[in-house]
């Protein structure tokens, strides 16, 4: 069974129907992963820290695009859809993965890997949350094996760092391109 770790960028693109063509491939990738989960060929996870990132993106979308009297309802609709996917009290299709001490310790290694990569500026470097996602992927590898774990993201920086430092870091797929089957 393959284990997929989805980050906030993928879930936001999947749930936010107002995003145009950029998210079409992401929606197709997540739909494919949900079908694999239903067929019991995959387990899907989202780092619990990504829930806050999703909420922030949904608030920005709702409150910047809609008049105030409609924004609150739109925001709530996005959050309810996210909770429907992730909450164990609802469908719980995607499991929430809790941050643990082991992940925090792995972050040091990830920034050591990432920092020497050539960049014109540091603006495109990993965020702290990006490093947490990669660290959680490392933890899943220790549990399930390197061939059975894949980070799925719409963030090119995460994919670039993971690809550059394989097998020390987990495999990652850019959701707008191709997500391998289980």
Task: Please explain how this structure is put together.
The chain has helices at 8-15, 24-38, 49-65, 68-86, 101-114, 128-144, 156-164; strands at 2-6, 42-47, 95-97, 149-153, 171-174. The protein is globular and about 50 Å long. The chain is built from seven helices and five strands, in the order βααβααβααβαβ. The longest helix has 19 residues, at 68-86. The protein has a five-stranded parallel beta sheet, with helices on both faces. It is of the alpha/beta class and 182 residues long. Helix 1 (8-15) packs across helix 2 and helix 1 packs parallel to helix 3.
Please outline the helices and strands.
Layout: E1 2-6, H1 8-15, H2 24-38, E2 42-47, H3 49-65, H4 68-86, E3 95-97, H5 101-114, H6 128-144, E4 149-153, H7 156-164, E5 171-174
Parallel strand pairs: 1-2, 1-4, 2-3, 4-5
Helix pairs in contact: 1-2, 1-3, 3-4, 5-6
Features:
single chain; 182 residues; alpha/beta; five-stranded parallel beta sheet
Strand-residue fraction? 5-15%
**Count of separate DSSP helical elements:** 7
Largest sheet: 5 strands, parallel
Low-pLDDT parts are: none
Helix/strand structural class = alpha/beta
Head-to-tail CA distance between termini = 7 Å
What is the strand arrangement across the widest sheet? Answer: 3-2-1-4-5
What string, H for helix and E for strand, traces the elements in order? EHHEHHEHHEHE
Computed Rg: 16 Å
Helix content: 40-55%
Number of extended strands: 5
Give the assembly state of these chains.
Answer: single chain
Shape: globular
User: How confident overall, as mean pLDDT?
Assistant: 87
């Amino acid at each position: 069974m393959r284990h997929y770790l989805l980050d906030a960028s993928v879930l936001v693109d999947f749930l936010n129907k107002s995003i145009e063509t950029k998210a079409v491939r992401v929606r197709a990738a997540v739909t494919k992963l949900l079908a694999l989960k239903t067929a019991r060929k995959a387990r899907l996870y989202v780092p619990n820290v990504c829930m806050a990132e999703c909420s922030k993106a949904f608030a920005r979308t709702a409150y910047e695009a809609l008049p105030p009297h409609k924004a609150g309802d739109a925001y709530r609709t996005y959050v309810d859809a996210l909770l429907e996917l992730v909450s164990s009290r609802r469908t719980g299709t995607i499991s929430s993965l809790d941050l643990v001490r082991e992940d925090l310790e792995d972050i040091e290694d990830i920034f050591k890997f990432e920092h020497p990569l050539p960049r014109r500026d540091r603006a495109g470097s990993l965020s702290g949350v990006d490093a947490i996602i990669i660290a959680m992927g490392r933890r899943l590898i220790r549990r399930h094996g390197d061939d059975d774990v894949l980070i799925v993201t719409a963030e090119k920086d995460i994919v670039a760092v993971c690809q550059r430092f394989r097998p020390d870091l987990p495999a990652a797929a850019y959701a707008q391109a191709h997500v391998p089957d289980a």
